[in-house]
Amino acid sequence: MLRARLQANCTVLRLSDCESLGETGANEEIVLADLADAAAVHAAMAGVDAVVHLGGVSVEGPFGPILQANIVGMVNLYEAARKQGARRLVFASSNHVTGFYKQSQTITADDPPRPDGLYGLSKAFGENLSRLYFDRYGIETACVRIGSSFTEPKDRRMLATWLSFDDLHRLITACLTTPVLGHTIIFGMSNNAVTWWDNARARHVGYQPQDSSDPFREAVFARSSTPDLNDPAALFQGGAFVRAGPFE
Q: In angstroms, rounded to a whole number, what is the distance separating the alpha carbons of residues 160 and 189?
């Protein structure tokens, strides 16, 4: 969903994945690289000015793949950025960094992480790693704790966490273009009436969401039942992630 939108942000859009991305479009380059392969990541970063990092394992699962893609891969990426001279990154963190806060709470970026699984834990590591590379090397990073980015909210939880594709692009654009980014944690959400996250710490970025989950509220309520507050997925912000199976 971002591939076409990001064309507006650059002269040349270099895309990378560990699997085929299809044909190269106008003003695009494709460099295949596994995040766990330091040499490949280093080569892919040559000549890059800024990075929108969306790669890695995006769901809860066994630790091995999460370790390689989300932890080793992050170290490889930031080392490549340091060596190749990239000065700004937008890192796709996750709301699952704070999944064990209750839905009855409103939190800020200053509240400590409470990850709801290995996936959320890996994203917390990424946020700390990016902080180290800012403090030590001056590489600016926006850690965007993406909520739920879909065409429309699927359930009652997403009325609070929904982030439209256009607002996601607006947020990335704000992070890439603000004069001074520093190291910033931003909650990735649209202008939803119900929210658990206070984005006041990121006002210097200038993100102004234009979409909202509110027009979908009646339809979501009509097709879903009242939450069972004995179910941890209805109690905690991480939803179903908080009751995932045992770590393997």
A: 8
Instruction: Report how far Cα 189 is from the mean position of its chain's Cα atoms.
Output: 11
CATH superfamily of 33-241: NAD(P)-binding Rossmann-like Domain (3.40.50.720)
**Tokens 């001279």 label which residue?**
85
Q: Give per-residue pLDDT as tens, 135-193.
A: 999 999 999 999 999 999 999 999 999 999 999 999 999 999 999 999 999 999 999 99
Provide the pLDDT for residue 246: 65
- Nearest-5° Cα angle at 240, 1 to 169: 20
Q: Which residues of the chain have pLDDT under 50?
A: none
Q: Is 119 a catalytic residue?
A: yes
- 78, 101, 119, 207: the catalytic one is 119
Please give the structure tokens belonging to residue 204: 């210097």
Asked whether the beta carbons of 157 and 220 are under 8 A apart, the reply is: no
Neighbours of 208 (CB within 10 A): 11
